[in-house]
């Protein structure tokens, strides 16, 4: 982990990167990036915009979203950057966003929005906040956009997970943290583990279409989220952290490289497929993955 997730790891791994992989014209491409006003999402949205994509920043706060939209427009010179205010943890807001979206197709969907709350927080309908933000909202959004994703010729859906998920097994017990003392780091890791399983399951849903689905982890990048949520970790590792752009590199590579990376459903880091498990007791059964899918379907269906 040390020497790999950090900046040194990026420097080492980048020696085998092909610069031409990101040298892609995205004219005509329609991309949505959730949580695009900060950190990795902002870096991703900027890099898509500078290559000519039409980019929709899906942000929960209007003021922060507008500031990001204006900054990306002026930094990239692109006028094709727009803002939609949507809190992805709020399933009604996700439904309203999908309904209002005027696009007939979506070519890139980046599920980046994320957070690590210290206290247990619930959404208005009673879902625990990390579960709603990392799992239910993106699951519902993918389902609502399904026909518009399938309408396009080369589509990439990227779930921005975390290396923190390596520490936990997939668990569906007590999703709302009603029977345990809340542990934000664990809630974060568990929902990031769920994202990896869901990306794999969504890839199977899309078999026979031109939609590829990936999960990835960015390593450790210095972002406003890390500074705010993990101040001790940030103090200890500050000099070792990647930049937000380096954290976004594999998101972009998955979204940009001409031939869609294989396998769809895989878990990637630094432009390579990686193992989903570093610890033997974290390996889940196919039945557990299927149960996650069924729970997500049930919780997002009215
Ligand atoms: N940085 C790292 O080292 C690292 C490592 C592993 C994984 N990640 C993952 O990378 C992604 C980006 O994180 P980051 O480090 O760039 O953190 P960040 O700077 O805090 O960015 C997170 C973004 O997500 C947005 N967001 C949070 N909840 C949302 C919601 N309900 N609806 C819409 N947007 C929401 C935030 O909006 P606000 O500004 O309004 O809060 C912010 O724009 C996250 O999924 C995170 O888990 C990061």
Short summary of the structure?
By secondary structure, the chain is of the alpha/beta class. It has helices spanning 7-13, 39-50, 62-76, 91-100, 129-144, 146-150, 184-205, 224-229, 231-237, 244-256, 286-300, and strands at 30-34, 54-59, 81-85, 108-111, 155-160, 211-216, 267-269, 272-273. Helix 2 packs parallel to helix 3, helix 2 (39-50) packs across helix 10 and helix 5 (129-144) packs across helix 11.
How would you describe the overall organization of this protein?
Helix content is 42%, strand content 12%. The protein contains 11 helices and 8 strands. An 8-stranded mixed beta sheet has the order 3-2-1-4-5-6-7-8, sandwiched between helices. The chain starts with 6 loop residues before the first helix and ends with a helix. It has helices spanning 7-13, 39-50, 62-76, 91-100, 129-144, 146-150, 184-205, 224-229, 231-237, 244-256, 286-300, and strands spanning 30-34, 54-59, 81-85, 108-111, 155-160, 211-216, 267-269, 272-273. Helix 7 links the parallel strand 5 and strand 6 (211-216). The mean pLDDT is 97. The site of NADP nicotinamide-adenine-dinucleotide phosphate has 30 residues, from helix 2 and helix 8.
């Amino acid at each position: 982990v040390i020497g790999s997730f950090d900046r040194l790891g990026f420097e080492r791994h980048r020696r085998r990167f092909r610069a031409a992989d990101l040298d892609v014209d995205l004219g005509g491409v329609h991309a949505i990036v959730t949580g695009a006003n900060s950190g990795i999402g902002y870096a991703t949205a900027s890099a898509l915009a500078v290559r000519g994509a039409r980019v929709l920043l899906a942000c929960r706060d209007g003021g922060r979203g507008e500031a990001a939209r204006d900054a990306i427009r002026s930094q990239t010179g692109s006028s094709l950057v727009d803002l939609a205010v949507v809190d992805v943890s709020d399933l009604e807001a996700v439904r309203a966003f999908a309904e209002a979206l005027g696009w007939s197709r979506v070519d890139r969907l980046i599920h980046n929005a994320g957070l690590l709350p210290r206290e247990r927080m619930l959404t208005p309908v009673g879902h625990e906040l990390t579960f709603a933000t990392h799992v239910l909202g993106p699951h519902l959004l993918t389902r609502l956009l399904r026909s518009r994703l399938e309408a396009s010729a080369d589509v990439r859906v990227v779930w921005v997970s975390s290396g923190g998920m390596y520490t936990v097994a997939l668990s569906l017990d007590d999703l709302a943290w009603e029977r345990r003392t809340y542990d934000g780091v664990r809630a974060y890791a568990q929902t990031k583990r769920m994202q990896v399983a869901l990306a794999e399951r969504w890839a199977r849903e899309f078999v026979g279409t031109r939609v590829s689905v990936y999960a990835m982890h960015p390593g450790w990048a210095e972002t406003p989220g890390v500074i705010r949520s993990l101040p001790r970790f940030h103090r200890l590792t500050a000099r070792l952290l990647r930049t937000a752009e380096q954290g976004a590199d594999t998101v972009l590579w998955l979204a940009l490289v001409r031939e869609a990376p294989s396998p769809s459903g895989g878990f990637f880091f630094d432009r390579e497929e990686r193992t989903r498990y570093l610890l033997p007791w974290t390996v889940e059964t196919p039945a557990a993955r299927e149960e996650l899918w069924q729970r997500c379907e049930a919780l997002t269906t009215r």
